[in-house]
Design a protein that fits this description.
By secondary structure, this protein is mostly helical. It is built from 7 helices and no strands.
């Protein structure tokens, strides 16, 4: 007789495919965030510049958060050194949040602005999901001193399949 956990378990080969799909999706979101940073820094839309009026100094900060978050997050996810992703996702979430706030005032003026604002929110939700997932990785039971946790995080890499202890 099989236990309920065994009945509902995902086959290992399907699990690997699904986890690879999640990883590729994360990489795509990081590239989108990075592209948003490049776009914000070098091709700031006139509507955004007009919206910022006396706050144009915010553009390099906002673009920097997107660039830093996208690049470090991509590198961390690609190499599976997820400790790099912790600050990256934080920067990316704040960068996309600033982008969403700036775009929100003009979001309903045209379909293009609405689509852009929607894509920014989707990217922010992807980063937020990854941030929450990384918090689970960062809190291993039994490693309470900060130095031990930090050492373990730096050594640990994510695999294609998360081990399950049921």
């Amino acid at each position: 007789m099989m236990t309920p956990a065994e009945v509902s378990a995902v086959r290992p080969e399907r699990r690997r495919r699904l986890e690879a799909l999640i990883r590729v999706t994360d990489l795509i979101v990081y590239v989108a965030v990075l592209a948003g940073g490049v776009y914000a820094l070098f091709f700031t839309p006139t509507t955004v510049a007009a919206e910022l009026a006396g706050w144009k100094w915010l553009v390099p900060i906002w673009a920097g958060l997107l660039l830093l978050g996208g690049l470090l997050g991509f590198i961390g996810r690609l190499t599976r050194y997820w400790v790099i992703e912790l600050p990256a996702t934080t920067a990316a979430v704040f960068g996309t949040l600033i982008y969403a706030v700036i775009l929100s005032s003009s979001a309903l003026q045209s379909i293009t602005s609405t689509v852009a604002a929607t894509l920014v929110v989707v990217a922010m939700l992807g980063m937020l999901r990854r941030y929450i997932e990384l918090q689970i990785f960062a809190t291993e039971p039994g490693e309470s001193p900060f130095r031990d946790r930090l050492t373990a995080m730096i050594r640990r890499r994510t695999g294609n399949v998360a081990p399950r202890h049921e």
